[in-house]
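Quick one: sequence plus zinc ion SMILES, need structure tokens.
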Amino acid sequence: MTLLGPADPPAVHRINPDGRAPILFVSDHDANAVAAALDTLGLPPEELARHVGYDIGIAHIARRLSARFDAPLIASGYSRLVVDPNRWPGTAGSIPEAADGTTIPGNRNLTDDARSARLDSLFHPYHAAIAETLDAMIAHGPAPLFIALHSFTPALRSAGGDRPWEIGFLWDTDDRASALAIAAFRRRFPDVNVGANQPYSGSSPEGYTVPVHAKRRGLHDLTLEFRQDLIATPEGGDLWADRFAVVLDDVLANSALIQ
Ligand SMILES: [Zn+2]
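Reply:
Sure thing.
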């Protein structure tokens, strides 16, 4: 059963697929589209437009970095509220019934067929695109550095309190690339407040994309999050993309990360 109609956007965007850098960028929460058949999940537009719907500002940054490094970018075409590409199917976060204080009417009392339609139409094509791209890159060149791009809200309703970090790097057990990036950020931009496994760690809540694609292949990986209020405009996005680009140049200069 397919969820998508002719007027719906594609499940996955492949940007610069033939990019030559030994880097793959992925953007799990790039878009806030909802398939027409799902009728906005019963949500008003302002709910889909806030951080629960997608990672505000990251689409602009991801495309700028893809162009800057001549690297492929795989981006999800749909809201994380339809099915979250970075949560294991079958877990509560995969098709959430609530997110940071917002109840999602269209995700309640779903049948198994309805869940399968979202996975088959959106989740699996997105991850297949990542896997295919990695296969092709590894077949033709060095094993790439896997970079997962996200943004985070400075004020999570359910957590209370502000989050002062301007950018954060997250990891689970392997911090080799993250440690290089954090050190480079502190050297290049000493005034920037860099989070190290804050506001949460790379293993809690458990992600899907990095373990499945990077860890299983033994690739080095970076997961980073930009604070949304800093990147909500194109100018802000450019500034922070370019700051990270300087840092990434330093990381790439450590040739041990490219196998
Ligand atoms: Zn995200």
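The chain is about 35% helix and 15% strand. The radius of gyration is 18 Å.
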